[in-house]
Design a protein that fits this description.
By secondary structure, the protein is of the alpha/beta class. It has helices at about 10-20, 55-70, 80-85, 90-95, 105-110, 110-120, 135-140, 170-175, 230-245, 275-280, 285-290, and strands at about 1-5, 25-30, 45-50, 70-75, 95-100, 130, 150-155, 165, 180-185, 190-200, 205-215, 220-225, 245-255, 260-265, 310.
């Protein structure tokens, strides 16, 4: 069984986990557009590829899949998920399984205002969100909204341009500079990350791992502690079933005064997934089972609470940055 991991970047641990879990004789192949992506050199083989926006990129990936006899492919970055979802049939016609949700699910996940609308319409508790400055101003004038608020790009990742705002003057200025900013109520509470696996065969949520985020760095969880709450598990199951996602996803959640609020979804491996794996929540194994035609049994909350994760820096050196290996 051979797996292709796209845009691997610095996600060495994901490569390592799949190499560890795959049966003997299998290979993990990685791609990136930069030869300085350290995770490339963790894989059994790698390819330097064009940037994802270049014409012919999908053809390039399919060609690699055919050459390496790839069984399944997935990406570790948001923009590429849209490409995979749009071209699902092309991969499937070649006998390659793209591990990605359908396009309409990806579209909701990448548009924070659409996600708010989805949660609101489906009665999922979420963070109150305004599409633009005018919508917020109307609510503010009616005393239905207050400061501080939180602004972020409607579509974007890695917490780019996200910031807390405490005045109408600054909010107006920021929205004039970037009309694509959305405005959210500022929830002062506990930040939680959920790593969720939805079985590719049964389409049922079979695994959930939740952690309290203690420190963030560049939009990723840097330090965290595992937590368990049966009510939160039920909320996540309900939300995921209505959303229709499949495979591995990452959900951001807020907790305030014993209430949970769904915030965002990354329909891929989250940056904090190593915490789940090291606690025994083995998504690579679940993926391998599914690719082998085996449905996974439900194992929600099958881990120990109170286990801390602390990321630290490491170094990878290479003397030969060839296009392929």
């Amino acid at each position: 069984m051979n797996i292709l991991i796209l845009s691997c970047g610095t996600r060495n641990k994901i490569i390592e986990y799949f190499k560890r879990e795959l049966p003997e004789g299998s290979r993990v192949i990685a791609t990136d557009c930069s030869g300085l992506a350290p995770a490339l050199y963790e894989a059994d083989g790698y390819y330097l590829v064009s940037p994802i926006k270049e014409a012919g990129y999908v053809d390039e990936i399919i060609s690699i899949c055919e050459k390496e006899h790839i069984n399944a492919v997935f990406s570790l970055i948001d923009p590429e998920l849209t490409l995979l979802a749009e071209n699902k049939k092309r991969f499937l016609d070649k006998g390659i399984i793209p591990i990605v949700s359908d396009y309409d699910v990806i579209d909701i996940c990448f548009d924070k205002y659409k996600m708010f609308e989805f949660c609101y319409q489906n009665k999922i508790p979420t963070v109150l969100t305004y599409k633009n400055f005018l919508d917020f101003w109307e609510a503010y004038e009616k005393k239905e909204a207050e400061f501080p608020v939180f602004v972020k790009p409607r579509c974007g990742s890695c917490s780019m341009e996200a910031q807390k705002v405490g005045s109408i003057e600054k909010l107006k200025l920021l929205c004039e500079q970037n009309p694509e900013l959305i405005i959210q109520e500022c929830i002062e509470g506990i930040e939680i990350g959920a790593d969720v696996y939805i079985d590719l065969l049964s389409e049922e949520t079979v695994s959930i791992f939740t952690k309290q985020k203690l420190l963030m760095r560049a939009g990723e969880t840097d330090k965290s502690v595992s937590i368990k709450d049966s009510y939160l598990f039920e909320l996540i199951e309900e939300f995921v079933k209505k959303l229709g996602a499949v495979g591995h996803i990452d959900i951001d959640i807020f907790k305030k005064e014993n209430r949970y609020f769904i915030s965002e979804v990354n329909p891929r491996f989250g940056g904090g997934y190593p915490h789940a794996y090291e606690c025994g929540v083995n998504f690579p194994e679940y993926i391998i089972n599914n690719l082998s035609g085996i449905e996974n049994k439900k194992m929600i909350g099958n881990y120990e609470a109170g286990i801390y994760m602390m990321k630290y820096l490491d170094v990878k050196v290479a003397s030969d940055l060839r296009k392929t290996r």
